[in-house]
Amino acid sequence: MPCRSWATPSSLPTTPRGSSAAHCKLSRKSNPQTRRGIPSHRPSHRFGLNRRRFGSVPFRLSVGLDSIFFIPYGEPIQAMFKNARDLSMKPIIVVAMRDQFGMPPADVAIYERDGSGGSAKPLDGWEHMDPAHRIFHSQHRDLHAMLNGASLEGMTARFMANYTARLRATAAVGDEWTELPDLFALLRTDMFHAACTSMVGERFFELNPDFCRDFWEFDGHVLTYLRRPPRWMAPRAFAVRTRLLESIKKWRQYAGRQFDAADPALAAAEYEPVWGARLMRVRADVFAKAGASPDGCASMDLGLLWAANANVIPATLWTLLGVLLSPDLAARVRAEMADCLDTDTDSFRVSALCSKPLLNGIHLESLRFCTAATSARNPVIDDFRICGWRIPRDALMLSISWFGAHDARFWNTGRTLPDGTPEHPVDAYWAERFLEYPDDPASGPVRKPAAASRRPAAKRTPAHDKTAKAISHTAALGGYFYPYGGGTRICPGRHLAKQEMLGAVAVMLREFEIELLDPAAAAKAGPDLSVFPTGALGPDRKLAVRMRRRRKEEAR
Ligand code: HEM
């Protein structure tokens, strides 16, 4: 893929497709009260993004009357993630709930009144808060518990079964080649239905058949909501959000009527078709005890459905595209997939897929390549310091994962070509970037000495891939790679995300033959920077394909 240069997003920051958000209108005004030794960069009306600006030193951005402290990658972001107890995500969650997910003021107040922190032990001075009102802690506890272990296994198994069933039933692709204008649209429909059904149950789409279409229209308006225009200036954006919230309310009312909470078998079930995953029932109970209204509960559920789908589906697109662009990679990926197929059940063992070196590597490279997620925190102590820099209490600290993930000084960029350019620049997708091969000292994600990059590239085979190791641990990449954020507030859905990404790619490649109609144009596709930095970014163009079903014997 060719080298891509920076676009210029019109404002910063926005929200990660997790929970955090910030409504910021960049302005030339600065607030002298917040000048405490942090260098200040005044943004111009459009925010020119380049690495020099996002160097290794924290700096302050003036945003209206407030300031944002930009925390760069490397040591500073690691320090931010380590100091969880002195930092809060409350202000940013309040903004996300209010501005993006349309939560009514009375429900936003439930978040605002909780200063007890996310940990089991309340922060000093908050020991006597009613546990039912500790909304941050309850959510954190339930998400981490129920997106792990047996609950996670169940969620992934349902996703795989739903996704496979949808692809097998789709009328869009038959036995003969069919041209489809947009591969991403296909993933956005089928993955979304499969993942949501596994989370909110089979009845959800029966009640709300247009939810998927509305969801992606809503996703396209995220930056609009965060700019907080009056409703009359963005009628379509607000109308679609209202439709989504009404759909969720309809489902919640239905589930409340249909579900027999007194039935012990149902209460213990990890999944049933009305509420879906137990996580949704547990959350409903927590919200009710905290005093949330039906409208407030709908906003919280919209937040979760958005976090659970808006990143993982674009990230999957890049994994699949990487495979489709390279016949050699496709053959090696299929070799790994073949090892993970359980012939008795005719389904993939997702845990096996997730432990294969090459599959692991392409999942990591997809996240590196496309993710511009923000991690935001506010100090809850007076004298918070990061690498010697002092950040005032309650000030917004913000970091964007893209910059470290695209620092050419850090990442391995492969061989140096005769014209002096790197073979695999950081703004191109390189399936092997994260892989360390024991017989190749030039391999591995981190930049190698110049001599190593002059060695000829080795031709990889499935046998080589078996010996490789995908490197993503903090000791190697710490501070340069944090698509899921970090510390105790790291994305609770990261395991599910990886399983869905690799599971979806495996099922797609098994069920269908897929060919890009214009591989040269597809190779030029890059992340859509017009929505920077809202998380994992989808492609900046449509990717037309032709597809047909694999014959049974080929699928194996
Ligand atoms: C490629 C996929 C994904 C990416 C890149 C991603 C990224 C993130 C990031 C950066 C954060 C903020 C972490 C921080 O501030 O340090 C976050 C939070 C969150 N993510 Fe994900 N995420 C992904 C998939 C998922 C999935 C599948 C779920 C499923 C439920 C999920 C649920 C959440 C939730 C609920 C939060 C908020 C947690 C809190 O408030 O503490 N995410 N995610």
TrEMBL record:
The keyword Metal-binding applies. Residues 445-455 have a biased composition (Low complexity). It comes from the Eukaryota. InterPro entries: CYP450_sterol_14alpha_dmase, Cyt_P450, Cyt_P450_E_grp-IV, Cyt_P450_sf. Gene3D superfamilies: Cytochrome P450. Keywords: Heme, Iron, Metal-binding, Monooxygenase, Oxidoreductase. This is Cytochrome P450. It comes from Trichocladium antarcticum.
